[in-house]
From TrEMBL:
Keyword terms of this UniProt record: ANK repeat, Repeat
Coiled coil: none
Gene3D superfamilies: Ankyrin repeat-containing domain
Source superkingdom: Eukaryota
Protein name: ANR29 protein
């Protein structure tokens, strides 16, 4: 099982996709097909990661253990899924690969494929019994990871396969919140249409609208505003308008005021939005809205 110069040559062949050399080494009888490096990596894991299907096939037919785990917990299936090699994933399944194994973060092959946006692989994994409700140990679900990356095709696939659109991470962060924070407006639109809770707040009291307002993601804000999110004071003591003013985003301020945000609302520190900026254009917008409300 230990590393030898010949074993290292086998790892090199698996990485480069050099089938002839790999066969030569395995057929010599002097290299264990399941030999591991110092991190517990096998040649099958390496070939799976790099997508060399011929080398994968050779190793499996020579008796490589398909479900061995690296020290991190990752398996050949995990690596193939993470890198988007659907042909390798299908082949490993035909020889009994399991979707159950987790790495040290709780990551499974399905979670890895979702995190990196490999829709075809996600489809294959679900077809072979991967659990759509898999979560990392911090609570991040498949749909959360896809939302974070902005992978719309993966999200549509997960939603049509029964994923929970509002499943939060342990700190209360919902998929909609993370998509808003990352500026993925198309993802936000689809999630809202599929029942995402528009005002879901994280444990720190911030909502999707507040995050988008801080960042100035106006496309995201436009999508959220179609679903009438709260424009008032949040439980963390501020409002989306205060956040937008503080960040200096003129267009964001305009959007929120048009949607009915109140320029006379004070935050928990008793400050008006206008007291948080010296930006003339923002102050003009706030004053105009105040006048309009008074009249």
């Amino acid at each position: 099982q230990k590393e030898t110069p010949l074993a290292n040559a086998a790892f090199w062949a698996a990485r480069k996709g050099n089938l002839a050399l790999l066969q030569l080494l395995l057929n010599s009888g002097r290299v264990d097909v399941d030999c591991k490096d110092s991190l517990g990596t096998t040649a099958l894991m390496v070939a799976s990661y790099y997508g060399h299907i011929d080398c994968v096939r050779e190793l499996v037919l020579q008796g490589a253990d398909i479900n061995l785990q690296r020290e991190s917990g990752a398996t050949p299936l995990f690596f193939a899924a993470q890198q988007g090699h659907n042909d390798v994933v299908k082949f490993l399944f035909s020889f009994g690969a399991s979707t159950e194994f987790k790495n040290k973060d709780g990551g499974t092959a399905l979670l890895a494929a979702c995190q990196y946006g490999h829709a075809k692989v996600v489809e294959t994994l679900l077809k072979h019994g991967a659990n759509i409700h898999d979560q990392l140990y911090d609570g991040a679900s498949a749909i959360f990871l896809a939302a974070q990356g902005g992978y719309l095709d993966v999200i549509r696939l997960l939603l049509s396969s029964g994923a929970k659109v509002n499943q939060p991470r342990q700190d209360g962060t919902a998929p909609l919140w993370i998509a808003s924070q990352m500026g993925h407006s198309e993802v936000v639109r689809v999630m809202l249409l599929r029942g995402a809770e528009r005002d879901a707040a994280r444990d720190d009291g911030t909502t999707a609208l507040l995050k988008a307002a801080i960042k100035g993601y106006n496309n995201v804000i436009e999508e959220l505003l179609k679903f009438s999110p709260t424009l008032g004071l949040l439980k963390n003591g501020t409002s989306a308008l205060h956040a937008a003013v503080l960040s200096g985003n003129v267009r964001t301020v305009a959007l929120l005021l048009e949607a009915g945000a109140d320029p006379c609302l004070r935050n928990k520190a008793n400050e008006l939005p206008a007291e948080l900026t010296k930006n003339e254009r923002i102050l003009r917008l706030l004053r105009a809205k105040e006048k309009q409300r008074k009249s």
